């Protein structure tokens, strides 16, 4: 049996990885606004290896640099093709791991992916977790500023689960906070979670940050989050991560939008 990192590397060479796309909705209007790209590794026995089972190893071996580049290039091209084919404004969110965020060629890699795909940098959100942002927070601010100067959006993923400093939150040049699904799961049964979500929302809005609520699985959760004033949501209630052909079929079935430049 080959070592795991060798199997990962072979899987990329043989084109085995897939990207699934999970819809992100505007909670206030109900419109589809974009998607998050999530990596998958289908196996020969028709099972699917979830990212939690290979991203940590890819990260520790350094292979995440190649895999992450493939995810970014492929998803940028795919979303640009959907924008052109369906005349819709769609934003793409891509996860950046710790190693990617600190890699010397991060900006070159993103610039190339945008150039080759033709995707507008304003249609790309880069997601980093609190842990990544807070590790060497001063250096992180510099990297984030550079990413912002390229025109991309920046999201803080899994917000509330890590160790977040409110003073840094104020200084990080972020656009979006993604409230972790652990706070959404027990709404409306858990009054504490509801209070936490309301408080995070008030704080985020005071800092001019938009919110994406993650892990929305029920109508009641969606209603509560919408009434809190949260702008965006993703979760199984709106749509599971879908293979590209299923995501495209969903986009194609939506009512037509006004042309992009007048929308
Ligand atoms: P994440 O970035 O927090 O992604 C959201 C995860 O929540 C996804 O798990 C998604 O399938 C799952 N999810 C979405 N809606 C719901 C829901 O309503 N209920 C529940 N229980 N779960 C929901 P997934 O796809 O297994 O990905 C797990 C993690 O792996 C991601 O968490 C992300 O940290 C990482 N990951 C995935 N793809 C990539 C990638 O291309 N690059 C990097 N660096 N990390 C990735
Ligand atoms: Ca994410
Ligand atoms: Ca998340």
Structure notes:
The protein is α/β, with parallel strands linked by helices and 263 residues long. The chain is built from 12 helices and 10 strands. It has helices at 4-13, 55-61, 64-86, 98-102, 106-117, 130-134, 137-149, 166-171, 181-184, 191-206, 219-227, 244-252, and strands spanning 18-26, 32-42, 48-49, 91-95, 124-129, 153-159, 176-179, 210-213, 232-233, 242-243. Helix 11 (219-227) links the parallel strand 8 and strand 9. Helix 3 packs parallel to helix 5 (106-117). The chain starts with a helix and ends in an 11-residue tail after the last helix. The mean pLDDT is 95.
Quick structural overview:
The chain has helices at 4-13, 55-61, 64-86, 98-102, 106-117, 130-134, 137-149, 166-171, 181-184, 191-206, 219-227, 244-252; strands at 18-26, 32-42, 48-49, 91-95, 124-129, 153-159, 176-179, 210-213, 232-233, 242-243. With 263 residues, the protein is an alpha/beta fold.
What's the arrangement of secondary structure elements?
Blueprint: H1 4-13, E1 18-26, E2 32-42, E3 48-49, H2 55-61, H3 64-86, E4 91-95, H4 98-102, H5 106-117, E5 124-129, H6 130-134, H7 137-149, E6 153-159, H8 166-171, E7 176-179, H9 181-184, H10 191-206, E8 210-213, H11 219-227, E9 232-233, E10 242-243, H12 244-252
Parallel strand pairs: 2-4, 4-5, 5-6, 6-7, 7-8, 8-9
Antiparallel strand pairs: 1-2, 1-9, 1-10, 2-3
Helix pairs in contact: 3-5
The structure holds ligand C2E and calcium ion (CA) (2 copies).
Which descriptors apply to this entry?
263 residues, alpha/beta, TIM Barrel, eight-stranded mixed beta barrel, globular, binds ligand C2E, binds calcium ion
């Amino acid at each position: 049996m080959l070592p795991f990192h060798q199997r990962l590397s072979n899987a990329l060479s043989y084109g085995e990885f897939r990207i699934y796309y999970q819809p992100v909705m505007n909670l206030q209007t109900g419109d589809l606004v974009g998607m998050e790209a999530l990596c998958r590794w289908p196996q020969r026995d028709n099972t699917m290896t979830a990212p939690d089972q290979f991203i940590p190893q890819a990260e520790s071996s350094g292979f995440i640099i190649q895999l992450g580049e493939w995810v970014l290039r492929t998803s940028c091209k795919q979303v640009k093709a959907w924008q052109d084919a369906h005349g819709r404004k769609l934003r793409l969110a891509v996860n950046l791991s710790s190693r990617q965020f600190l890699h010397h060629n991060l900006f070159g890699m993103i610039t190339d992916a945008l150039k080759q795909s033709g995707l507008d940098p304003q249609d790309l959100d880069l997601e980093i977790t609190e842990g990544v942002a807070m590790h060497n927070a001063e250096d992180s601010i510099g990297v984030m500023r550079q990413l912002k100067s390229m025109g991309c959006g920046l999201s803080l993923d899994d917000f509330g689960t890590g160790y977040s400093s409110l003073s840094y939150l104020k200084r990080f040049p972020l656009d979006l906070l993604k409230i972790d699904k652990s706070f959404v799961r027990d709404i409306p049964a858990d009054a504490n979670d509801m209070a936490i979500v309301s408080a995070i929302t008030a704080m985020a809005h005071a800092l001019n940050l938009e919110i994406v609520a993650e892990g929305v699985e029920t109508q009641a959760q969606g209603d509560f989050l919408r009434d809190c004033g949260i702008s965006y949501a993703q979760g199984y209630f709106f749509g599971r991560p879908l293979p590209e052909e299923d995501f495209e079929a969903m986009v194609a079935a939506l009512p037509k939008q006004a042309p992009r430049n007048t929308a």
